[in-house]
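[User] I have long wanted to understand how a fold can be written as tokens. Those tokens are not coordinates but codes from a learned vocabulary of shapes. Could you go through the record with me and say what the backbone is doing? Thank you; the sequence and its tokens follow:
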Amino acid sequence: MMSKQESGPQLAQRVLGQTGYRPPLLESEIKLRLDRNEGRGGLEHLGAAELLGELGERGTELARRYPQTAGLQAELAERFGVGSDQVLVTAGGDDSLARICQAFVDPGSEVLLPTPTFEMIAKYALLAGGVLREVPWGLNDFPVDDILRSVSAQTRMVAVVSPNNPTGSVVRATELERLIKELPQVLLLVDLAYAEFAAEDLTSVALAASNTIVVRTFSKAWGLAGLRVGYALGTRPSIEALRRAGNPYPVSGLSVELARRALAQPELAQSYVAQVRVEREELNRLLSEAGMETAQSEGNFVFVRTSMAEQLWRELGSRGIAVRWFGEQPALQDALRITCPGGRAEFALLRKCLLEILAETETAQ
């Protein structure tokens, strides 16, 4: 929310000073997208076609009425053992993150970011007038001691993303509990977009505290990124603040209905998650054996640092496979993030192409 001391032109200048989300684009035709961490989940089994057909039977009510999220919020509340008024359905997890920054970050207050991490958090914090303070986070261990040393009287919020994007590194429950205990005056934004893929889910730990807000989504493990359904979990006052910080009807009625169907069939997400874990291990092994530095990712992707990053990005692209190269970010120009496809045929194609490129590179040397 705009500070009383901040004029309209000042706000406009701050917005114009932000760069948009523009990852590098390939010119070749892409047949397999592994650059956006989109899940498969099981959308084909959710009855999407049947639901669309029901529109005829139910008139046009679902399309013409403003969407009602109360049912989905109640089901999520039951799933996580909280009250319905402790859940807010939003337009993807991104909307939750933006609302948190608008509601809780004041102009001039500090937002502490372990980096690299999901880049939109920094953008939303800056748009709210926050001052970023970064703490380096390597490929694996969460820098909890460095975070605690970096907190100042001006620190308003600390971002905790686990598994982290883009590295896949995780925060352990004991580390989150330490932050909760030692920083009672600081809001902990706990982004768990990839929690289903991790060995440890931090939701219950976070919700046991009063200074946390959890963000989750249907975009990843459920494979519903196109529906834009996310949600925030927290204390009643926190969730009410988020409700007031954004649009009243953020998600379409069709999206709500499909999300409810997905939530009722958890086995679809579980099957996909199991396949991803197998692929993740195999990809890490393949890339490590090629001499590349890989993170201990617990997301639906692998993260690798290599001098071949741009070359692999282009070579895979020429074969119709898109992966995420961070060429627009100086600190990550030697990094790639490769989404695990979650399907045996697609993974076989990815593995085959990687081996071909690596063999050709070795021959050329």
Summary: The chain has a mean pLDDT of 89. Residues 26-41+267-364 form a domain with the Aspartate Aminotransferase, domain 1 fold (CATH 3.90.1150.10). The chain is about 40% helix and 15% strand. The first helix runs from residue 8 to 16.
